[in-house]
Amino acid sequence: MINKIEEFCLNILRKIGFKKIADWYLEHQEGMRYLVFGVLTTLVNIVISAILYYGIFALLPENLKVNISTIIAIIAAWIFAYVTNKLYVFDTKTSNWKELLKEMVSFISCRIVTAIVEVFLMDWLVTGLEFNYMGMKIFVSVLIIILNFVFSKLIIFKKA
């Protein structure tokens, strides 16, 4: 289905005179798909985080509200990211449960590293330096997307 949506959008670009952009996209398809799904993963993270921070955990002390909202949103984003990266971005195949488990453990391990970075930065920037929560969430998310791409490309979904 993703391939059909992608091809539909590329055909529209070609028909309205942006053939070079469509061709460039196809030349860099893996990176472009990572960017698209990275943005969607970030939206999952931000939306869930905002719902938790401003709604469900609104009455908690600031540090708890920041950290709990961030951790739950990260886990939801991980699930979305693993599925989309495996199936649509890096298109890796695993032939048995052992390979799948190894890939998942590698994914989770790398994401734990970036989650620690995210939680530390959010706590420091919002609680410590008192910057705006959503502004820092977006800023930190951009840094995390870059780190996650590097880990995904070089460690997790590397081609044999």
Average predicted local confidence, pLDDT: 90
Q: Please tell me what the overall shape is.
A: globular
Structural class from helices and strands?
mainly alpha
Number of strands: 0
List the total number of helices. 6
Beta-strand percent range: under 5%
Topology, element by element:
Layout: H1 2-15, H2 19-27, H3 29-56, H4 62-89, H5 97-128, H6 133-156
Helix pairs in contact: 1-2, 3-4, 3-6, 4-5, 5-6
Characterise the protein shown here.
This protein has helices at 2-15, 19-27, 29-56, 62-89, 97-128, 133-156. The protein has one domain (30-156). The model has no long low-confidence stretch (mean pLDDT 90). By secondary structure, the chain is mostly helical. It is 84% helix and 0% strand. Helix 3 (29-56) packs antiparallel against helix 4 and helix 3 runs antiparallel to helix 6. It contains six helices and no strands. The two termini are 26 Å apart.
In short:
This protein is mainly alpha-helical.
Can you give keywords for this protein?
160 residues, 6 helices, globular
